[in-house]
């Protein structure tokens, strides 16, 4: 657990001076280029209880304390390990590579979920300062789509850090958008034993399954032979993923924790019963994709010919 310095709270005069200074400081402006502002966040305790975690209480941290998510441009530039604002005319090849095809060349046709998309480069573009992945019906293959999947497997990998991403996820039936992390190597065996960290996923079937909530957006961990590959998820009730939100995953040696729009949702710590089942101590890389018609989800309407997923910016920072 993190420890907190409460000496400021015990000195009222110092606290008043600090509040006055913060209130009179000039508000930062939103920048579209690389982050250059060196403003640093104050560490404040956050005791917000998790909303709904599908995990036993022994594995769930119900009083996670960490930094709040900062608006873009407000984190120290020296702590940024990776960032992209998607302000160029094309996807930056120095940051992102493309996964192409239908997965058959990797022995996982349908990308392991019997999905109905063929990944192509042309489906990922930069539009109005954000990344747009556009899925279109494939005229050459009835029942199939073209879409895109980008990753940093060959450009950027990391062990521990804070991932912040501002995204607008698809919610039409059949769409399965995801921003997630995969291990660089399968050090503990094939998926899911070597782990998967989902920052955010969106699939319309979750909206129908959890009525009367308008929508739920999950972030998930996949791992563990003792859990039969089951996943642990947080769910943000009432969160409409079709609107812009900032999704945060804080990956530390002692656990993985989640936020949406700066609101703490809780997190997970390594299991005490089977500590070897926690594979999140190796390097991972970023992946973003829009899949269509996975076997476990809703199916696209025959009247729909196009779906999109937008990412405004993404940033990975040191802890």
UniProtKB/TrEMBL annotation:
Leader peptide range in chain numbering: 1-27
Gene Ontology BP terms: carbohydrate metabolic process
The keyword Nuclease appears for this protein: no
Residue ranges of every copy of the GH16 domain listed in the record: 51-319
Presence of keyword Cytoplasm: no
Record keywords: Lectin, Signal
Source domain of life: Eukaryota
PANTHER family per record: GLYCOSIDE HYDROLASE FAMILY 16 PROTEIN (PTHR10963:SF55), GLYCOSYL HYDROLASE-RELATED (PTHR10963)
Record-stated family: Belongs to the glycosyl hydrolase 16 family.
Protein name, per record: Concanavalin A-like lectin/glucanase domain-containing protein
Organism: Thamnocephalis sphaerospora
